[in-house]
Write a structure and sequence with these properties.
- By secondary structure, the protein is of the alpha/beta class.
- It is built from 23 helices and 12 strands.
- Strand 1, helix 2 (47-59) and strand 2 form a beta-alpha-beta unit.
- The longest helix has 27 residues, at 190-216.
- The radius of gyration is 25 Å and the shape is globular.
- It starts with 6 loop residues before the first helix and ends with a helix.
């Protein structure tokens, strides 16, 4: 056997030898690189989107995790406030519509010419322009029998479609999509409803083609189940929500002040199996799982033990900091209304703990665990119905994991997130360290809510934290005391070696699933999202058009990781390069 293999073959062989089952790139749809038909927003379904996943497969990745796929409002580009059922027409690649005869080439060329300059997403321009072009495409298909047949087929798997089409029509008639300010009975607009239906068919067809291509490349495609409920669905399903309370994030290590999200809370009385809220949750799951191979579950606490706060408090931040968990509050004097929904007794609560603490509930009985695990039972059931594998569930448990959530996950042997940049390396029990992970966990250096790794390393460099990390990484990677003695000062003095080491640490622990957020792969310093802050740059960062060259240049400057080299270091750290095959594989990786 040759000692040099193609990068994909060598990387995937190394992953298998290390026991890593999944190496997945996390990237939201809007971040895909611009193609020639770009009007200011990315899409996986463009020519450059397809090229990017082919390149990722060549690097040895086994999957790509997309963001929430729903419709974002004109005022809010966050994919985590998008619809859970309908798909975002902004994700439709426009050049294929011209090739299908649905869109005039001149209209597209004019739209591309007027696109705002700059490398970030131009959300406002894209939102308006995309809808105008899709309306023109829909008008061309108005009397097309083939399109009518395609829409009839779509209706069979989307029971909510007509209600959303009516919503679009009413919004178009009024001139905005904020239903709180609609007149009592705005006139519908049939053209807008037709355009919405056509766009829903087109975006699903393009996604199906993208997913098929990903499968041919050996890649899984993951969806994202956001915990929030979109503005639109708050209107369409308004009878399913609990009055007087909203959902947010409590104070925690990740967010010490808490976050008042303002999301509605599904009414517990209707969330029992067979209830209206239960059916709505099942629809949300099916809408994602029918088109993806796995699922990221955003803030799973919201499905098991949501943190809620009163909406009659004029200060939402004060309210969320003094909130409570919906099902763990049997006798709180400031939340008497929650007693009706309690699943635990007062004697099961540790009053010495803050009410948001992991150990607020001391223990649970089997019947109580059954209640808490209902939603994850539903998720597993729907996943298996769609031929999915529970190991392809990414459960976003970060700094906190209350007992009810932990017991619900243990029921199905599901893992959590381990975010290495957040680890306290002085604490051997810290949940973010790689060596405290379990095989079912997903390990990463950062995600869309953390600073990019390059910015973090810049902040650490020359500080005590850099020295602590160098010592920690040397202990993780060295195979002998002598090697550790030599490696620690090298990592302290050589940022390139430090970068390789911190990526190698991803592959050295028990976790079998590695997730890399795309700015960390490209060595970017720009922040993708500042959580809890309204910032015009949030969600707008994009992969460069010349992404392969951008990665190679950043790697040559030691600002982006050399994944093959990091894997070679991991093989050595785990003593998996000792036999003849391991030596050949290590040599191949170092030459990639």
């Amino acid at each position: 056997m040759s000692s040099t293999r193609p990068p994909q073959q060598a990387v995937r062989a190394a992953l298998e030898r290390l026991g890593i089952e999944r190496l997945v790139l996390s990237i939201h749809q809007a971040s895909f690189p611009p193609s020639a038909d770009d009007i200011g927003r990315g899409t996986p379904y463009s020519e450059k989107g397809w090229a990017l996943i082919e390149w990722l497969a060549g690097l040895g990745f086994t999957g790509v995790a997309l963001g929430p796929a729903g419709i974002t409002s004109r005022a809010n580009p966050s994919p985590y406030d998008a619809t859970a059922l309908s798909r975002n027409p902004l994700h439709i690649a426009l050049r294929p519509l011209c090739e299908q005869g649905l869109l005039d080439d001149r209209l597209l060329a004019a739209a591309v010419t007027k696109r705002p300059s700059g490398g970030r997403e131009a959300y406002d321009y894209a939102w308006v322009t995309q809808r105008r072009l899709l309306a023109a495409a829909a008008a061309r298909s108005r009397d097309d029998a083939a399109m009518a047949a395609r829409l009839a087929q779509l209706h069979q798997t989307t029971p909510w479609l007509e209600a959303e089409a009516e919503y679009e029509a009413r919004a178009d008639a009024v001139g905005h999509d904020d239903w709180r300010h609609w007149p009592s009975a705005p006139p519908p607009h049939s053209d807008a409803a037709w355009s919405f239906l056509v766009s829903q068919r087109l975006v699903r067809e393009q996604h199906a083609a993208f997913r098929s291509q990903a499968h041919r490349l050996g890649l899984h495609v993951y969806g994202d189940l956001a915990i929030g409920t979109s503005h639109r669905e708050q209107f369409l399903f308004r009878d399913l929500f609990l009055t007087g309370y909203a959902m947010g994030a409590p104070p925690s290590r990740t967010n010490p002040a808490g976050q008042p999200w303002g999301y509605p809370v599904l009414d517990p009385a209707k969330l029992a199996p067979g209830g209206g809220a239960w059916r709505y949750a099942a629809m949300r799951l099916d809408a994602i799982l029918q088109d993806h191979d796995g699922l990221r579950i955003d803030h799973p606490h919201g499905w098991v033990c949501p943190w809620v706060y009163r909406t009659d408090d004029p200060d939402p931040l004060h309210a969320v900091q003094h909130g409570a968990r919906l099902y763990e509050s049997p006798d709180l004097p400031d939340h008497p209304a929650l007693a009706a929904y309690a699943r635990v007794r007062g004697d099961q609560i540790d009053r010495s703990q803050p009410r948001h603490a992991d150990h607020w509930v001391r223990d649970l009985e089997p019947a109580q665990i059954d209640q808490y695990a209902r939603t994850f039972d539903l998720i597993i059931q729907r996943l298996q119905t769609s031929q999915g594998d529970p190991r392809d569930l990414m459960v976003e448990v970060l700094s906190t994991c209350p007992r009810p959530l932990g017991d619900a996950l243990a029921r199905h042997a599901l893992g959590r997130f381990r975010v290495l940049q957040k680890a306290d390396v002085k604490d051997p029990r810290d949940p973010y360290r790689s060596d405290t992970a379990r095989p079912q966990d997903w390990i990463m250096l950062g995600n869309h809510d953390t600073p990019p790794l390059r910015a973090v390393l810049d902040h650490w460099h020359g500080t005590d934290e850099w020295a602590r990390r160098s010592a920690y990484l040397a202990a993780r990677l060295a195979v002998s005391a002598e090697e550790r003695r030599l490696l620690e000062p090298r990592l302290a003095d050589d940022p390139a070696a430090f970068l390789t080491a911190i990526f190698a640490d991803l592959f050295c622990g028990p976790a079998r699933n590695v997730l890399i957020f795309w700015p960390d792969l490209f060595g970017l310093r720009e922040v993708y999202n500042r959580p809890g802050v309204v910032d015009q740059d949030n969600w707008s960062l994009r992969v460069p058009a010349a992404f392969e060259r951008a990665y190679q240049d950043a790697r040559d400057r030691s600002e982006a990781p050399n994944l093959a080299l990091a894997l070679a270091w991991a093989l050595r750290a785990k003593r998996l390069d000792q036999d003849a095959e391991g030596q050949r594989l290590s040599t191949s990786l170092r030459r990639c």
